[in-house]
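--- STAGE predict ---
source: upstream dedup step, 1 unique chain passed
mode: sequence only
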Amino acid sequence: MLPFKLVYHERYDLNLGAHVFPSQKFRLIAEALLREKIAAQDDFLRPEPASDEDILRVHTPDWVRKLKTGTLTASEIMKLEVPYSKELVEAVWLAAGGTILAAQCALRDGFGANLGGGFHHAHPGFGEGFCAIHDVAVAIRRLQANGAIAKAMVIDTDVHHGNGTAAIFRDDPSVFTISIHQENNYPAYKPPSSVDLNMLDRADDEEYMGALLPAVQKALDEFRPEMVFYVGGADPFCEDQLGGLSLSKEGLKQRDRKVFEEARRRGIPVTAALAGGYARRVEDTVRIHMNTIVAAREVAEAYPAASAARK
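--- STAGE serialize ---
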């Protein structure tokens, strides 16, 4: 058994068919973790959908109403870049509930992972880039509202800039945001994060880690968050269809491990959500996301005292 919980729901899969966003990956990750005995059935928790009260701490009533009633305009659906359906709405409410649940588990165990979520392009009043509801922001606001945490940090490693995250928390000193991304990529307008690490095209493992690790260490030491939310992108991978960086699978696993180690050494719990991944072979995306869980297990085993101190 894992020393932490994984959150997953079979309705995370939107059944989009032949779409560049492989929403079947959520199911494939869960199945592969079980098949390879990385996780046992008892390691999985099923989330409830986030409440509308939770969603409305981040999103506007108008956007929530449009999603729930299916009254998005054609341009809003075009911006979202996935077909609107009731299944989509159910999935994103579940994903937000999943990241809340993973964060609650992280407070107890030192780490928690939602095998979905990471929808970092969602803004308060609209969705874009496959993201309708910002599950990480919803989870942060829920934990803050409950008094579980006051200060949070978002470390976003998706190949695309976390523009929704930056916009939501832009004027909020209680949330520190780091985005490491390919500069010459979507979105065109990138509102400022607390720290933006703009990587040049085809940056490799060494260049990437040389930028990320010092920034993470400095931010953790100076900001001292009570929880890190890790948006784990598989799309910096060298064969990603929507990315232009050149990281290897092993480099991506080391990225996850090093960030988790920095948080663990400081006794800071980590909540992970699995963000973008569009490799030509979906098995590569699945393996990269699975390695995030393996990296977390390795760090938890290497630093058991950090977990025990949180309990």
